[in-house]
Amino acid sequence: xxxxxxxxxxxxxxxxxxxxxxxxxxxxxxxxxxxxxxxxxxxxxxxxxxxxxxxxxxxxxxxxxxxxxxxxxxxxxxxxxxxxxxxxxxxxxxxxxxxxxxxxxxxxxxxxxxxxxxxxxxxxxxxxxxxxxxxxxxxxxxxxxxxxxxxxxxxxxxxxxxxxxxxxxxxxxxxxxxxxxxxxxxxxxxxxxxxxxxxxxxxxxxxxxxxxxxxxxxxxxxxxxxxxxxxxxxxxxxxxxxxxxxxxxxxxxxxxxxxxxxxxxxxxxxxxxxxxxxxxxxxxxxxxxxxxxxxxxxxxxxxxxxxxxxxxxxxxxxxxxxxxxxxxxxxxxxx
Length: 335
Hints:
alpha/beta, Enolase-like, domain 1, TIM Barrel, 3-stranded antiparallel beta sheet, 11 helices, 14 strands, about 20% strand
């Protein structure tokens, strides 16, 4: 299958300032570095955005190089189905895959939702992230966000000031009614796992993301889960699912990991068939990166698409956020 018209490619790097800083167990950053792709066939244009992630060996330069390498294939008629075999999962394929969905919808004068065969997307409640810090600072940040019903708490810090049990207890005291999920970003160890699980259960946390390093998470199969545990760094595409069911209760599906919406949808179907709950997650990017994930999130139990809320400013036009409610994208943005 090939495209009816040859496609030209434009790819560029963009930097978007974060409001304050974004801190997880692996460090802090003040800028969201993204790569934007535009496909043009002489009539229709499609766009996609990805966020290169160093944890997976990606950089802005390497992602741009991988996208640039597809210029000849695009000119020769490479299409979205063919892209799945032409490139491996990851940020580079994500930007191209989402741009293909966008241009296909614009050619057909329809929506991506209609092309997929799902109902028109509905507004969703997204988590809002509280960065890692000292317990008092995190409690204050949670209190400042107390109007938001669903908070995602970054843990995985050192043991000073009582460590992660003190952090999550302080946050629960600050926001007694909020739904809380915890993301340790591989920051716990087999030694600290049980005490942190107990602390999260005591704080009535609803979900814990990736407590142990992806390469050392077998202990999760041998310990009780008083709080459901979600795979993030351990889960990338469908090929990674088979080994997860004994260790995890849910999977965080991010388009930058799956390599686009095409694989993300297939992965969500496979995960549900295996009895895993689904979280629709994101890296820190603009509304252009979130827009395709809003479609994925329609089938997710947990939605974490707050990337634009963490920025000092978003691209325009962008997604509409009303507090923690995110609305489906308009065609002028994507899809």
